Amino acid sequence: MKIVTWNINGIRTFRGGIKKALDSLGADIICVQETKVTRDLLDERTAIVDGYNSYFSYSRGRSGYSGVATYCKDSATPFAAEEGLTGLLTNHEGAVGCYGDHTEFSSEELQLLDNEGRAVITQCQNKVQTVTVINVYCPRADPEKPERKQFKLQFYKLLQYRAEAILKDGSYVIVLGDVNTSHRPIDHCDPSDIDDFGENPGRKWLNGFLHSDKPEEDKNEEEPDEESEISETDPIHGGKFVDTFRYFHPTRTNAFTCWSTLTGARQTNYGTRIDYIFADCQLAKDQFLGADIMPEVEGSDHCPVWGQLSCPLLPSSKPPPICTRYLPEFAGKQQKLSRFLVKVDQKSVQSERRDVLPGSQEEEERRENLNPIRAGNVSGKKRVLTSDSVVPKGKKTKTVNTSSKPQGSLLSFFKPKLTNAVPPTEAPVRQCEKILSLDEMTPTQNSQKASTTRENVSSVADGLPEDTEPIFEGSTQMCTSSTTETCDKQVKTKHSTPQPSVGHSNSNKGASLVFWKSVLHGPPPPPSCKVHGEPCVLRTVKKEGPNMGKQFFVCARPQGHSSNPEARCNFFAWVEKGK
Asked: Which residues does the entry assign to the active site, renumbered to this chain (predicted)?
């Protein structure tokens, strides 16, 4: 049996066809992370692949985020499968079970930990005993969001409880996926650049989760591929699981699975190893034949990792209920309208209050829903929403328009415009002529028609485009002969269509070009870096702080170790203001 894990950074990585990509990996079980697909975006081409059966977990709080999936060949069809680690998402037969001790978690914490679509568990049968595969995409601890560190550690703890509970029940256990933590200094491109490398909470958790045979410096450098002896019952080195890659390659360096795409670090192999296949000690010792990384496979900022086992799997005659081929939208059955309607108890919704786990994605989504408009309202009124009006999970609050302006009629969009009746080049001139004729009338006639004239002038002014400046200011001022010429010139300048003239057109284009060049002068010319003498690239600070939005120049080469002459040098220069 061959098993593969790969963070694909979006299901669209398989642009050439999902079946072709899966077949190219040559594995019986393929676990992918960061699919970035939710249930409503899952299409049949992705869910139903000929020769495979698939199992998905989706993010329930944010679209295009997280998500994992496990594809099993029909020859390795599992007999049990479920989504999540807590069991709260399981309401069907064919579940894996064995959930471990949850006394350290509140019910709200458990629900939020499974709310981001980070785990799928499948269970297969071989000739000896069952093999359970836990496919996980562990959270990333964003340094700008300290609350996510606690969320990540809670997920680690929940994962360990579940894996050890299944192992205790008598099954072999494989935990694989993107763990988002490099374990040892050998798994990091530049560990000396990180303060207190070993004090990282994620690395401390890995130290307790994984079995450690002996200190790294005592290993034989002459034979890097020599298998390490492990003992499942050794109390000194703790841990019930083994990093299979390090089991077969204990001292291999520069073996990374993730690189930054922003800095082109894959070209210089300046990365980290954060994708793993963990197996319980007995399974690794008795059944694993090999494990390695696949850096030659591109398409994502991660590369696949594979593991080979000697035990063949016995396929189940029928996939478990959460298999995507049984989803109503893919099962070929007509759906009822009632399926899309959910009864909600409004009283319980309004009275519901709960303390959410720090850093959960649902909390962030809720804040966005509760405060959709950050700027002040024009009318001075702003609807204030409190946590008492929180809607059920997965539902967004409806933003109410509090503007006092009445809603317009649909018919107003079909009314003819005023400018259609009178050509825009003639209307103002005619109006001026009418006003001039008032001077020839008697005062009585003037007083009778003054109001009518003012109304006509205002109506014409209203009908002009926004960029036309009003010519008539004052209620009783009349155009004189001199102002008539000025009026005509202004109107003709703004509204009349000039006769085609090559010389005039070229001069206008030239003046326009000079104007736009003075306004949009483009980026400043890049300087050359001091080491390589090559043009630098322009970057912008996006991190919040005093320098946010400022631009700077750095060496254009990909990021790499300081000892690598082909990597980026340390050239740095701020862009001066006004350039």
From this structure: 137, 178, 302
Place of tokens 């028609």: 449
At 346 the pLDDT is 64
302 labelled ligand-binding: yes
Q: What is the CATH number of domain 2-214+237-332?
A: 3.60.10.10
**pLDDT, position 265:** 87
What is the reported pLDDT for 459? 46
Structural contact between residues 80 and 123, judged by C-beta atoms closer than 8 angstroms: yes
Where do the domains of the chain lie?
2-214+237-332, 523-578
* Dihedral over alpha carbons 551, 554, 560, 565 (to 10 degrees): 180
Q: What is the pLDDT of residue 234?
A: 46
The pLDDT assigned to 406 comes to 62
566 is in an annotated binding site: no
Distance CA 206, CA 156 (A): 9
- Catalytic entry in 28, 99, 172, 178: 178
pLDDT of residue 144: 80
Assign residue 98 a region: left if phi > 0, alpha if psi is -120 to 50, beta otherwise? left
* Whether pTM exceeds 0.90: no
Nearest alpha carbon to residue 312 among 75, 91, 101:
75
> What is the C-alpha to C-alpha distance for residues 434 and 520, in angstroms, rounded to an integer?
45
178 among known catalytic residues: yes
The secondary structure of the chain in percent helix, strand, coil, rounded to multiples of 5, reads: 30, 15, 50
Instruction: Give the pLDDT of residue 434.
Output: 47
- C-alpha span between 551 and 502 (Å, rounded): 42
Out of 188, 211, 249, 302, the active site residue is 302
Distance, in Å, from the CA atom of 460 to the CA atom of 433, rounded to the nearest integer, reads 14
Block means of pLDDT (10 residues each) for the chain, 579 residues, are 96 84 95 94 92 95 92 96 94 86 92 94 90 97 87 96 96 97 94 83 95 55 45 59 97 95 88 97 95 95 96 91 91 68 63 55 49 44 44 50 61 63 48 45 47 47 47 43 47 47 68 77 80 88 87 87 81 79
Closest CA to 259 of 575, 476, 561: 561
Distance CA 123, CA 108 (A): 27
Strand 80-83 to 130-137 pairing: unpaired
The verdict on whether 521 is a catalytic residue reads: no
User: How far apart, in Å, do the first and last CA atoms of the chain sit?
Assistant: 61
Residue 7, annotated as binding a ligand: yes
Beta-carbon-side half-sphere exposure of residue 21 (alpha carbons within 13 Å): 23
Rounded to whole angstroms, how far apart are CA atoms 367 and 359? 12
- pLDDT of 255 reads 96
Among this protein's residues, is 102 annotated catalytic? no
Predicted confidence at residue 198, as pLDDT, reads 86
Is 74:51 a contact under the CB 8 Å cutoff? yes
SS3 64: coil
Active-site hit among 52, 58, 137, 270: 137
Is residue 180 marked as binding?
A: yes
How far is residue 66's CA from residue 57's CA, in Å, rounded to a whole number?
A: 9
d(CA 29, CA 54) in angstroms, rounded, equals 10
Residues 6+ apart with CB under 8 A from 576: 524
pLDDT at residue 542, as a whole number: 87
pLDDT at 373: 45
